[in-house]
Structures are given as C-alpha cells and as structure tokens.
Write a structure and sequence with these properties.
With 315 residues, the chain is an alpha+beta fold. The chain is built from 7 helices and 5 strands; from the N terminus they run ααββααβαβαβα. The chain has a domain of 142 residues: 2-Layer Sandwich (60s Ribosomal Protein L30, Chain: A). Helix 2 packs antiparallel against helix 4. The radius of gyration is 75 Å and the shape is rod-shaped.
C-alpha cells in the first residue's frame, strides 16, 4: 500500500513535490525498516530475555530446591550441633568432675606418699639406731672377746702353774702316795687327801710321826708359793663320839684334827699363817657313804690366787 502512494503523487503533484514526497517516503520506509529491525532486535532480545528468564527461573527453582535442601541440612546440622553442644557440655562436666576427683585423688596420693615417706624415715631411723646398737654391741663383743681371750690365757697360765705345783707336791710326797695319800688336780685346785690312819690314832687329834713327816714335806713343797691360799679340812665318819672323850662331837673332832695339821705345817715351814685356814666339816661331806675309812680324812686344798681373773671378769 505504501508503494501505491508515490505513484498517485506522480500524477497529481509536481516533480519537486514528488521528490519531497519520495524523500519522505524513503525516510519513512527507512524508519519502518529501522522499526522492523528494532522490532526484530527487540523480539530477539525478548527471546533472549525469555530464555534468560527461563534459565533464571530454572536456576531460581534449583536455588529454591538447593535452599530447601540446605535449609533441611542446616536444620539437621543445627540439631547435630545442639547434640554436639550437649555432649560437649556433658563431657566438660565429666572432665571437671574427673579433674576435681583427680585433685582429691592426688591429695590422697600425696597424703599416702607422705605417710609412706614418714614410715620409711622411721624405719630408716630404726635401722640406723639398730645399726648403731649393733655396732656398739660388736664393739662390746670385741672387747669381751679380747677380755675372754685374756681370761682364757690367764686361766691357762694358772692351770699350767697348778699342774707344775701338783707335780712338785707329788714328787715331794712320792713315798706316801698309795699309802693313804693322794694328790689330785680338779676345778683349778690341788687336793692333797690324807687318810686318818696315816695321821691320827683312832679318836685322837694328835698327829703321829709318820703323819708329821708327810705334812712337813707338803708344807716345804708349797712354802715358796706366796699367792696360794691353803685350806685344811677335817672330815670324820658318822660314828658318834664315845663317852669320856674330850671332843663333844664329830664337828669338834674334825676341827681339832685340821688345827693340828695346820700347826705342823707352820712349825715345819715358812708358810704365812695368813694364808692358812683350818676348817672342820664333820661327817657331812663323805667321799663314799658305804666306806667309813675313806670318809675319815684330812684334805689340804691348795687354792690359787684368782684376783686377776676376778678383775678380768668384772671389767
């Protein structure tokens, strides 16, 4: 229809008008073409926008779906987080309880440790005290052993001296041994035993000649022994003293006989009277209850000086 318009103007208007009209028509045509182009471009843009809108809608739907999923996940995560927080609180509480319990247990352990340390210290002190006592005892024991050795040496020396004395006494009385006289060494002493038949008539305290000889030789054999103590004991049997006797009883007779022997020893030697003792034992220390003759006797007991031994024992 627009093409027919110029042709109508050719017949009706002058050429100038025609040109103007034509120009205007061309201009309008150009505008139309431009409008079509714009419309096409707009259509294209609209299509593109529609595509973009569709894409955005799709993406929005996906985002909404993802948001829903994320929301669900977030809610689940929040639930889990709450559970974790709760569990963490429980664990923290238990940890604090354990820590508090640990402090209490540590205090108990420290208390037990201190008690153990004190016990060990007490035991160590006891051991040290015991060790000290043992050391002191060992020192005392060593001292006693030394004294014992000294004492044993002294006893051995005394025994040797007494044995030597016994040999000399036996040698001095060799003619009388086996004739109512015996010489023995026992308990650190020397016993010279003389039967009454060698010394006295029956019921008498007077020593006869044979007896005086034996007693004198004994006194001479021991007179140089300045440290000896001499005990002269008189012994009787159980027979009662007969009427008319000058002796009241066996006690009296035993003392008289011991005294007679002592006098002879003093008169026949240089023995110090201070070292001699006369004693009567009566009938009460028999050798053989069934043999009265053996019980009637004089015993001269030679006793060594044991002061040094006593001193060693006391120390």
């Amino acid at each position: 229809m627009l093409v027919l318009i110029p042709m109508a103007f050719v017949a009706c208007v002058p050429a100038r008008k025609y040109e103007e009209t034509k120009l205007r028509a061309d201009s309008m045509q150009a505008e139309v073409d431009a409008a079509k182009a714009n419309a096409l471009a707009a259509q294209t843009s609209t299509a593109e926008l529609s595509a973009q809108v569709a894409d955005y809608s799709k993406r929005n739907a996906e985002l909404e779906r993802d948001t829903t999923v994320l929301g669900t996940s977030l809610r689940k995560m929040n639930v889990q987080y709450d559970k974790i927080n709760k569990l963490n609180d429980e664990l923290l509480g238990k940890y604090n309880d354990l820590l508090a319990g640990g402090r209490s247990e540590n205090r108990k352990l420290l208390t037990d440790l201190e008690a153990t340390r004190l016990e060990l210290q007490n035991r160590e002190d006891s051991v040290n005290a015991l060790a000290k006592r043992i050391s002191e005892k060992q020192a005392t024991l060593a001292d006693r052993e030394a004294k014992l050795a000294e004492l044993q040496a002294e006893i051995a020396a005394k025994d040797a001296a007494m044995k030597n004395l016994k040999d000399r006494v036996s040698q001095a009385l060799v003619g009388f041994e086996g004739k109512g006289l015996t010489v023995e060494q026992r308990n650190g002493r020397i016993y010279v035993s003389m039967d009454n038949k060698l010394l006295f008539p029956s019921g008498s305290a007077a020593v006869d000649a044979k007896g005086k000889e034996a007693v004198s030789k004994l006194a001479k054999a021991i007179e140089s022994e300045k440290e000896l103590s001499i005990l002269v004991e008189g012994h009787t049997d159980t027979d009662k003293i007969g009427g008319g006797s000058s002796y009241k009883d066996n006690w009296d007779l035993s003392v008289a006989r011991a005294t007679s022997v002592v006098r002879i020893m003093q008169e026949s030697s240089k023995l110090d009277p201070v070292r001699i003792t006369a004693a009567g034992r009566g009938e009460y220390v028999p050798i053989d209850p069934n043999d009265k003759a053996k019980n009637r006797r004089i015993e001269v007991v030679l006793i060594p000086d044991l002061k040094e031994l006593y001193n060693l024992v006391k120390e």
